[in-house]
Design brief:
CATH class of the largest domain: Mainly Beta
Largest sheet: 5 strands, antiparallel
GO molecular function, one term: type I interferon receptor activity
Pfam families: Interfer-bind, Tissue_fac
Protein name: Interferon alpha/beta receptor 1
InterPro entries: FN3_dom, FN3_sf, Ig-like_fold, Interferon/interleukin_rcp_dom, Type-II_Cytokine-TF_Rcpt
CATH superfamily of the largest domain: Immunoglobulins
Keywords: Membrane, Receptor, Transmembrane, Transmembrane helix
Strand content: 25-35%
Length: 546
């Protein structure tokens, strides 16, 4: 005759002290009612419809709440929870299922503000931050995490500008105006969990004037190009001074509050008198570092400079790439790019994920020539649609989108494209045709001139002379048969047979005959019309000899 038991309602889970607390409402008027809860979970996040288990700490409880705990390794898994009422073997239907992930419930707990301590000394403010107090359950989940701290600072004036920066648990705030009151507050954060604490109470402190020690190195700065890192500083000390450059790994400063004893000397930069130090050998792209300069003089006096932070990939500057250009046989302009960095080019290329901006233009006297641009991630680029017989110039810039860094442009490289092949063939054909035409006209002309030259030379400058005995005999003028001459009168002579004595010089006569025969062979006296004259001369010669 009793009323059936009702199911619990409005289930929720929250954190209290060191436990998770399950709470519900029960609207029945029944007495002697107890409550029990069950849960289920799955490592692969696939909740099963079976395998419900009793929730430890929440069995046969008389209140409408119970505290329970789970292994901390299970805090990241989703769970289903349900509750029912029980009375002397009678049970109510199960409540509606409440889904929860303990990790997110813990993260919803507000984090208390951190504690801070301030000290104003020598123109700076030294601050020490203590982590916020956390719940025991929070500590179980967050014990492996380290808080980071955000500082907000401003001058204690009306309408003062608020400035924010990240600080370490033990840090120094410099670049402050002397004799000025500054106010500040600090907030703790857990970036991995996207958690933020409340801000600490506002604290104010007045700065002092900084006592300048001329021994200290000033204007400490880092110059880096293509992963080559140099630390530079200024020396204001008038006497002999030596320097030790010291470094500290960034993670040590973040994790170890006693980091002041962990500074190390940079190899090669110990007891130096120069005002620069090459510390490239220390650098790995994945880390970050702090550097400072310790100045030392006689009498064991020393002074430490301000610290500078080095985040390699952010501090380093990208140098210009190398460029080579060439024209291929198919008329394309090929651009070969060498990543900047020399021996460190692979680090530069891989860490910065470099891209290249190519500028190219026609190198002409026209200043209005359009400069064209193309971007590529490859180290080889091509340009088409080139004008023949034109000089093109190229320069390249390397840039990294991830780090928002640009290099300066490379030196200009210029190259001239070859002439048009069709125009070249036309010019060649025209030249060959003109050469053939000149040869056809010049050859007959040269032949005619050559023949005329030979005739003139033959007439006026004969190559052979008449024999001396003929030349002396009567000094007769030999006339060329090719020239017309006036007829000479010929006397009518009769032949008288002389009596030739034996005393004739036969040798001289034979010589004469031999000379006459030679003249005939040369062709000077080949005219048959002169035969009679020759005979008369021969007879006259014979008489003179006698």
């Amino acid at each position: 005759g009793q009323t059936p038991l009702k199911s619990p309602q409005d289930i929720e889970v929250y954190v209290e002290n060191t436990h998770l607390v399950l709470r519900w409402n029960y609207t029945g008027n029944d007495t002697d009612v107890t409550f029990s809860a069950e849960y289920r979970w799955s490592e692969d996040f696939e909740i099963s419809k079976t395998n419900w288990e009793e929730l430890p700490g929440c069995q046969n409880v008389t209140r409408t709440a119970c505290g329970f705990s789970l292994d901390v390794t299970n805090y990241y898994d989703p769970h289903d929870v349900r509750v029912r009422a029980e009375r002397r073997g009678e049970v109510s239907p199960w409540s509606s299922t409440f889904e929860m992930t303990p990790y997110y419930i813990v993260l919803a707990i507000p984090i208390d503000p951190p504690g801070i301590k301030l000290q104003s000394i020598n123109g700076v403010i030294k601050i020490k931050v203590s982590p916020p107090e956390v719940n025991q359950v929070q500590r179980m989940l967050l014990m492996q995490q380290n808080f980071r701290y955000n500082l907000v600072i401003w001058k204690n004036l009306s309408n003062a500008e608020l400035k924010s920066r990240s600080i370490f648990p033990d840090d120094t705030i410099d670049d402050l105006t002397p004799d000025t009151t500054y106010c500040l507050k600090v907030q703790a954060t857990l970036p991995l969990h996207s958690l933020e604490s409340l801000f600490s109470p506002v604290c104010c402190v007045k700065t002092t004037r900084k006592v300048k020690d001329p021994l200290c190195a000033t204007n400490v700065r880092v110059l880096a190009l293509n992963m080559k890192f140099y630390l530079h500083w200024n020396n204001q000390y008038k006497q002999h001074v030596s320097y030790n450059v010291q470094y500290l790994l960034g993670y040590i400063r973040e994790l170890d509050s006693s980091y002041s004893t962990k500074w190390l000397n940079v190899p090669g930069c110990e007891n130096i008198t120069d005002t620069q130090c090459n510390f490239s050998s220390l650098i790995t792209p994945s880390g970050f570092y702090y550097l400072r300069v310790q100045a030392k003089s006689g009498f064991n006096k020393s002074c430490l400079s301000n610290e500078v932070k080095v985040d390699p990939l952010k501090t380093n500057d990208i140098g210009p790439p190398g460029v080579k250009v060439d024209i291929s046989g198919d008329g394309l302009l090929h651009i070969q790019i060498s990543p900047p960095g020399g021996s460190e080019r692979e680090v530069m290329r891989d860490q910065y994920d470099l891209s290249y901006r190519i500028l190219y233009w026609k190198n002409s006297s026209n200043n209005e020539e359009e400069i064209k641009m193309k971007e590529t991630k490859q180290t080889i680029g091509t340009v088409s649609d080139l004008t023949p017989s034109t000089t093109y110039c190229v320069k390249v810039q390397a840039f990294s989108k991830a780090y928002n860094k640009n290099s300066s442009y490379s030196e200009e490289e210029c190259i001239k494209t070859p002439g048009d092949k069709i125009s070249s063939l036309i010019i060649l054909a025209t030249f060959a045709s003109a050469l053939v035409a000149v040869c056809l006209v010049a050859t007959p002309l040269v032949f005619v001139l050559y023949q005329a030259y030979n005739k003139i030379k033959y007439v006026f400058f004969p190559s052979c002379q008449p024999p001396l005995n003929i030349e002396d005999f009567g000094r007769q003028l030999f006339i060329s048969p090719y020239l017309s001459t006036p007829e000479e009168p010929i006397e009518n002579c009769s032949v008288i047979e002389p009596v030739i004595t034996e005393v004739v010089n036969q040798i001289d006569f034979d010589d004469y005959k031999h000379s006459k025969q030679s003249s005939r062979d040369s062709g000077n006296y080949s005219n048959e019309d002169d035969a009679s004259g020759s005979k008369a001369s021969e007879e006259t010669l014979g008489r003179e000899i006698l």
